[in-house]
Amino acid sequence: MKVKRGLLIGRMQPVHNGHVEIIKKIFNxxxxxxxxxxxxxxxxxxxxPFTAGERVLMLQxxxxxxxxxxxSYYIIPIVDINNxxxxxxxxESLIPEFNVVFSGNPLVKRLFKENNYDVKTPPLFDRTNxxxxxxxxxxxxxxxxxxxLPESVVKIIxxxxxxxxxxxxxxxxxxx
Amino acid sequence: MKVKRGLLIGRMQPVHNGHVEIIKKIFNxxxxxxxxxxxxxxxxxxxxPFTAGERVLMLQxxxxxxxxxxxSYYIIPIVDINNxxxxxxxxESLIPEFNVVFSGNPLVKRLFKENNYDVKTPPLFDRTNxxxxxxxxxxxxxxxxxxxLPESVVKIIxxxxxxxxxxxxxxxxxxx
Amino acid sequence: MKVKRGLLIGRMQPVHNGHVEIIKKIFNxxxxxxxxxxxxxxxxxxxxPFTAGERVLMLQxxxxxxxxxxxSYYIIPIVDINNxxxxxxxxESLIPEFNVVFSGNPLVKRLFKENNYDVKTPPLFDRTNxxxxxxxxxxxxxxxxxxxLPESVVKIIxxxxxxxxxxxxxxxxxxx
Amino acid sequence: MKVKRGLLIGRMQPVHNGHVEIIKKIFNxxxxxxxxxxxxxxxxxxxxPFTAGERVLMLQxxxxxxxxxxxSYYIIPIVDINNxxxxxxxxESLIPEFNVVFSGNPLVKRLFKENNYDVKTPPLFDRTNxxxxxxxxxxxxxxxxxxxLPESVVKIIxxxxxxxxxxxxxxxxxxx
Amino acid sequence: MKVKRGLLIGRMQPVHNGHVEIIKKIFNxxxxxxxxxxxxxxxxxxxxPFTAGERVLMLQxxxxxxxxxxxSYYIIPIVDINNxxxxxxxxESLIPEFNVVFSGNPLVKRLFKENNYDVKTPPLFDRTNxxxxxxxxxxxxxxxxxxxLPESVVKIIxxxxxxxxxxxxxxxxxxx
Amino acid sequence: MKVKRGLLIGRMQPVHNGHVEIIKKIFNxxxxxxxxxxxxxxxxxxxxPFTAGERVLMLQxxxxxxxxxxxSYYIIPIVDINNxxxxxxxxESLIPEFNVVFSGNPLVKRLFKENNYDVKTPPLFDRTNxxxxxxxxxxxxxxxxxxxLPESVVKIIxxxxxxxxxxxxxxxxxxx
Lengths: 176, 176, 176, 176, 176, 176
Hints:
6 copies of one chain form a homohexamer.
Chain A: E1 5-10, H1 17-26, E2 32-37, H2 52-63, E3 73-77, H3 84-94, E4 100-102, H4 106-114, E5 118-120, H5 132-141, H6 151-159, H7 162-169
C-alpha cells in the first residue's frame, strides 16, 4: 500500500466547523482520508440527534465546497459493536486499508494501538466554541447555533426539521 | 382500513389503576386498541421487575373485568430494538395496522410523527398517586401498594412472589 | 395456578381453516389458550410472507367470529431466538404461565419436554388440503386459495395486497 | 429535496465491468447516486469473498477513473438486518435521502415499493459474461477473470491475495 | 510468551475417540493446548445435538482419564459470531494467548492465517469410522455408537437421555 | 448426578487474592467447581479492563499453584445476554450440570433461585482491601496493587501492558 491513507472517526452530531478545520489540516499529512461516522445506528437522542445518513450528507455537502478533491476521501458510517476487543477489527472490515489513525478519544487510541496502528492526536481547533455538546445545547435553547456550522449543514438541519426533533426529544415524559 | 384503531404503548411495570383509567377513556375515541407492552425483554430490574408474560396476564385479567369488549383490544409485547430510526417500523411490523398513537413519551411521539402518524397525548389520570415508579417504591418499602393496582394484578403479584423478587434485587452486592 | 392454560405455537403463514379447527378442539381440553405466532420477525419470504402484525390481525378477526370467548385466548408474536437451549425459556418469558403445550413439531415438543412440560400432539384436521405450504403455492399460481382460509383472512390478504407480495418475491433476480 | 438522487444496492462480490456500465447509465437519470454495498458484514465465503472495506475501495478506485464527478456519488456499506419488514427503513437510516431506487432483485423492489418509493429496474448490460457468480467461478478455476473487472479491481484483488483466499475457502474440510 | 500454546477448535458433537487421539498427538508439539468448543450456542439440532456445557463435561471427563496433565489444557466454549472478518479476533478475545492453530477446516485456517498465525493441519486419525456425522447417524439408527466414544462420553449421553433427544428432533413435523 | 458440583460467577477484573480464598473455601463444600468469568465479552473499560481470555489465563495460572486438583474445576467465560429472564438458562447451557450456586450478587441469587437452584452466599474474605474496584483504583493511581494479586496475575498484567491500558482508557477525551 503506497498511498498514505488516514482514518478519522467521530460521531459528528452534527458536523461542525471544527471538523472541517481538522480534516483540512489532516490532509497536509495524508493522501487520502477515511472519515468514519461513529455510532452509526444511533439517532433521535439528545446527544445523538441525527441519523448516519443525515450525517453522511452533511459531511459530503460540506467537503465538496472545500478544495479537498472529492476522490480523496471516503465517508463511511460505522455502527457500534459494543465489544471493545473486536471494535478496531470491525472498523477495519468496513473501510479501505489505512496506515494512520487520528483520534482524540483515549479508548479509540488504545484499541488501534493494540492493533499495531500509528495513532496520532488530531490537530487542534477552537474548542471553546466548537464542541458537539455545546452546539446541541444552543440548538435546544434557541441560541445562535448556525454560526458554528458550515452553511450546507445548517441547510440540511432545516430541511429535516432537526431543531424541532432535538427540542421534542428533550421534553420530560408525562406519565409512566 | 375503516375501523379506528389506536395504539398505546407502556412498560406497565406493573399494570396499575391509572392504566385502566386511560384505556377506558381512549375507548371513547377508538373502535379498537392495541396495547403494546414496552421493553418486553426486560425483567428482574428495580424499574422493570415483571416479565412481558406476567404483564400480559395482568392486563388481560384486568381488562376482562371491565366493560370493554375483549375482542376490541390486542395485548402485544414489544421487545426493544435499541435503534430509534427503526423503532416505529419495528412496532408496525409486530401489531395490526393502526391510525392513531397515544403516548406521553416525547421520543415515542416524535418517532411516530416522523412516520406520519396522528399522535395524541393520552387523557390524564391521578398522577400524584399513580405512577409506576411510586408504586414500585411502595412495594420495596412494604407500604400500601395494593390500593394502586387492580385486584387481578395484586393476585398475580402474590402468586409469582413479586414483592420478594423486587426486594431481593434491590439489595446491595456483598463483594466483587 | 388453577386455570388449565394451554400453549399452541405456529407460524400461521397464513392463518387457515385447519388452525381454526385445531383451536376449537383444543378448547375442549383447556380453559384458556395462548396462541404464539412463531418466527414473529420474519416476513416477505416465500414461506413466510406475512408480518407478525398481519398474522395477529388474521387470527383475532377469525376467532372473534367463532363461539370461543375472546377473553379466553392470548395471541402473542414470538420472535425467533436462534438458540434451542434458550428457546422454551424465551417463550415462557413472553407469555402468561401455562401448563400444557400442543405441538406437532418434534423440536418444539422436545424442548418443552426438557423444560418439564406436559406436551400433547394437537388434534388432527384435513391435512390433505390444509397446509401452509400448499396454500402459499396456490396463491403464487393463482389457484383457489380462498376456500382454505377463513373469510376474515381472505379480506385482510386482499387489503394488504398479499397475493402480489407473494408473487413478486417469488420472481427470479435479473442480475448480480 | 430538489436534487434527483438515486439508490443502487448490490453486493458487488467483486465490483465488475457490468456494475460500471450500469452506474454510468443510471447517471443519465439522476443527479446523484448512492451506491449501497449490500451484505456489508459478510466476507470470506465462496459467494461473498471480499470485505465491505475492500469493496468500497474497489468501487471508489474504479469510479474515480470514469468521467462521473466524485462528489456526485456516495459509497456506503449496508450490513444485513435479517428482518425484511425493517430492511428498507434500515437502509434509509444509513444513507442520505433519495427518491428513486434501482434494483433487479424482486425482494428489494417489493420492500422499497411498500415504503412508497419509485423503483426502477436498472439498465441492462452483457449478462452472459458479467455476473458475480460466473466471475468468482473463473477465479476459483484459474480462468481469465481479469477481463471482466476494471483494472483497479484487478490490482486490489492481487494486493489482498484475493484469489488464494477464494481458492482456500473453497476446499473441503478434512475431518469433523 | 515463552510457553508453546496451541489452539484446537472443533464442534465436538459429540467428543469421540478421534478427538482424543488428535489431542494426545498435538501434545507432542505444544506445552499447553486450548480446546475451543465451536458453535457453543447451538444445540438440539441433528448435526449439533449437545449443548456447550455437555460438550465441556464430555471433554474434561475424558481428558482427566488420560495422562495429559489437567493444568495444561483449557476447554472453552466459543459461540458463533457470524462475521468471518471478526471471527479470529473474537476467538482471541475469549481465550489465553496462543502461537499455533491446529485445524482441518479451510475457512478456520484461512482466517487465522490472515491474522498472522502459524496454522497446522492436525495429525490424522481413523477417519473411516470416526466422524461426528457418522456417529450421530449411528445414534439415530440405533447402531453401535458406543464403541466410537470414550466411556465417560457414553455415560454422559446416557445420563442426559441424549439418544432420545437426537431421535426425537430427527422426526418429521406433523402439520404446518 | 452424584458429584457435588458448584457454580461461582464473577467478573474477576482482575483475579485477586480474595477470589483465591473464596475458591479454596468453597472446595470444602463441593467436589467440583465451575468458575464462570462473567461479562466475558467486555474489556478495555475502566471497570472491566481485561479480556475474558486474559482472565481465564490469570485464574488457571493461579489455581495451578494451589493444592486444588486441576481436574476438579472448570473455567468458562460467560458472555452477557442482557435478558434477565434468560440469563440463568443461558449459563446452564454453557457449563456442565451443577447443583449449588455461590453468589453475593442479589440478582444472580434471585435468578438462580427462580430456576430452583440451591443458592449460597460465598464465604467471606478480607473485603476492606480486596475488591476489584479498589484494586483497579490503585492500578490507575500507581499505588501498590501487586500485593492484592496472586503472583501469576501480576506477571500476566505486566506481560499484556495492563497498567498502561487502564491508565490510557482512564484519560479524558480531547474533543468531540
